[in-house]
Amino acid sequence: MSEAAVIGARPARVETGKFWILPPAALLALLFFYPLALIARQAFFDDSGMANVAEVTRVLHSRFFLNALINTVSISVAATAGCLIVGLVLALILAFVPFPGSRFVARLIDTFIALPTFLVTLAFTFLYGSAGMLNAGLMEAFSLPLPPVNFLYSSWGVVLAEVTVYTPFILRPLLAAFSLVDRGQIEAASVLGARPLRIVRQVILPAAIPALIAGGSLCLLLTVNEFGIVLFIGAKGVITLPLLIYGKAIQESQYQVACIIAVINIALSLGLFGLYRFAAGRLGA
């Protein structure tokens, strides 16, 4: 009886572990949600606090916004498709075609993740620019008055640079997926007379689909928000959403227009991030 009374008299222990959420929540609110709220307020409300629907409608129907949206989507889709094709071919070679130095090649490709994007565009300028090595060699060899290769300063130059930068984001999950493929199934299909293309299509690719979806959605997210490559190449008439936000905010001081476009860009990015997390979850990441 006395022991039960002692147990009942003990003060309830305060669970302090649940309070550890406060520091990261406060930091997240200060560094992310508060600036995001300021951008949203600047986008949808005027200085007097009234909703500015007319300005939002004007920006969303403007030619400069629609052109930037079309450029952003078309470039990111083309770059993602290029990354998927190049990454798949490289992954198949590195995983199933043994050759000396394959690990070194895979790690060398991975180094592109660590390189700043402007470095790749600078290298492309030296190679394919108007005064680059390729044009200089062709002009000297064929006595041409003008540079014959000028794709770099167009949307295709941006796509090529983005494919070079972001292909490793496809290659890594594909190599991880290919490492789980049962080599016995490949050998059995080969013994039964299946050609290499049929083995790839029916045995290898089904295991690679989740990795392709996860890597492709990540590449789509990254290319939609790419700023440095587009700015550094300076392709004529190629204005994407991040570049348009920079131009409206920094060069033209139209902060409300920049905030409206930024909100659209954020919504697009969050949607693509949700797609990436869904695909990564299906992959088992």
Q: Can you name the CATH architecture?
A: Orthogonal Bundle
Which parts are unreliable, with pLDDT below 50 for 5 consecutive residues or more?
none
Oligomer: single chain
Radius of gyration based on Cα positions: 26 Å
Global outline? globular
- The CATH class turns out to be Mainly Alpha
Strand content: under 5%
The description of the largest β-sheet is: none
CATH fold call: MetI-like fold
CATH superfamily: MetI-like
- By secondary-structure content and strand pairing, the structural class works out as mainly alpha
N- to C-terminal distance: 54 Å
| Number of structural domains | 1
- E-strand count: 0
Mean pLDDT: 85
**Total of helices:** 14
Q: What does this molecule look like?
A:
The structure is a single chain. The chain has 285 residues and is an all-alpha fold. It has a single domain, classed as MetI-like fold (Orthogonal Bundle). The protein is 75% helix and 0% strand. It is built from 14 helices and no strands. The longest helix is centred in the first third of the chain and has 34 residues, at 63-96. The protein is globular. The model has no long low-confidence stretch (mean pLDDT 85).
Break the fold down into its secondary structure elements and pairings.
Elements: H1 2-9, H2 22-44, H3 53-60, H4 63-96, H5 102-114, H6 117-128, H7 133-142, H8 155-166, H9 168-178, H10 183-191, H11 196-224, H12 228-233, H13 241-251, H14 255-283
